[in-house]
Amino acid sequence: MPQTVTRADFDQVMVPNYAPADYIPVRGAGSRLWDQAGREYVDLAGGIAVNALGHAHPGLVAALTEQAGKVWHVSNSLTNEPALRLARKLVDATFAERVFFCNSGAEANEAAFKLARKFAIDTGGADKYEIIATTNSFHGRTFFTVTVGGQPKYSDGFGPRPTGIRHIPYNDLDALKAAISDKTAAVIIEPVQGEGGVLPADAAYLRGVRALCDQHKALLVLDEVQTGMGRSGSLFAYMEYGVTPDILTSAKSLGGGFPIGAMLTTADIASHFGVGTHGSTYGGNPLACAVAEAVLDVVNTPETLAGIRAKHARIVARLQALASETGVFATVRGMGLLIGAELAEPFKGKAKDFMTAAAREGVMVLQAGPDVVRFAPSLIIPDADIDEGLNRFERAVRAVIGQ
């Protein structure tokens, strides 16, 4: 019989690197969750942009169950059918010609950075290894990726960092012009900075980054861990901009909640990862790939992608109306179903307060730094759940600001 556990057990048995909420979800269906006490929540957080099709989607349950009855794991001295099917569909749907599977966004970015340096050194010499990233970016929690991410709070305190990494302001093409050189191996950009505040790149900026990379024979790496798999309203955000990367990373929504990451690139660049140069024990796991294939089959349809755009408009209109009535938000921004509501000056620094109050009202939202409330719900969330979730969120906002 399962042992009874509570939130208090976390503090007794878990490493204290997280500070989870005071409730534990135990069941989900669509865009609703229930905790141990049976309390219901509307989920506008999506597991931080992960639960692309909500909770317990029947198609994902069926794919996982079917694969679980066949084969769970094989070593990477073998391949497997779900991995090959998923890779083929990703190649057919994108610029990419080759795919590498792993287990998370951090691992996908780690692979991207290693491949970019390997390619650059192989083709441009030993001095061509510098990586340019942007301040307030986020690319994962391995030591390499957290160093490339431009947020010192995540990389301080761990001793000497990997070298050859430079940081410049986001959306500042002049800063990149001053920093890039023939020693640059790669420039890494999030089309929308997620953890940095839900900040979309300007179209002219991203086109300029592409041109500068071409000029200096540097690879353009787009981190689409948070924006990919329909989150932006296109399958990947680069399609919204019309700017093609050399390497793209994906995770989060790719597995709809099952851990998987992917690095996509061209055949020429991929050839520099010869046998034995990189690997992942669980990468390409049949269970993960079967689920991700089912996610892709649902997301990459005109109906789903059009629905994401319509839901974006519905949420933004409601948040803007709330901002007009209360003055709580300075701006509402984002793409598709990755939306950030930036707090107005009197409420700066209180994003966590709004998130906590929202949970008390029965709705789950996120923060993106101290000044932005973030929304990343299921890509197929029903309009009724959007409306009910935002009704609850409005009550939370008014409770915090005293209106």
From TrEMBL:
N(2)-acetyl-L-ornithine binds at R141, S280. The modification N6-(pyridoxal phosphate)lysine is found at K252. GO terms for cellular component: cytoplasm. It is found in: Cytoplasm. One of its GO terms (biological process) is L-arginine biosynthetic process. Pyridoxal 5'-phosphate binds at G105, A106, F138, D223, E224, V225, Q226, T281. It catalyses: N(2)-acetyl-L-ornithine + 2-oxoglutarate = N-acetyl-L-glutamate 5-semialdehyde + L-glutamate. GO terms for molecular function: diaminobutyrate-2-oxoglutarate transaminase activity; identical protein binding; N2-acetyl-L-ornithine:2-oxoglutarate 5-aminotransferase activity; pyridoxal phosphate binding. It is an enzyme of class 2 (transferase). It holds the Pfam family Aminotran_3. Homodimer. PANTHER family: AMINOTRANSFERASE CLASS III (PTHR11986), SUCCINYLORNITHINE TRANSAMINASE (PTHR11986:SF113). Belongs to the class-III pyridoxal-phosphate-dependent aminotransferase family. ArgD subfamily. May also have succinyldiaminopimelate aminotransferase activity, thus carrying out the corresponding step in lysine biosynthesis. This is Acetylornithine aminotransferase. It comes from Chitinimonas arctica. The gene is argD.
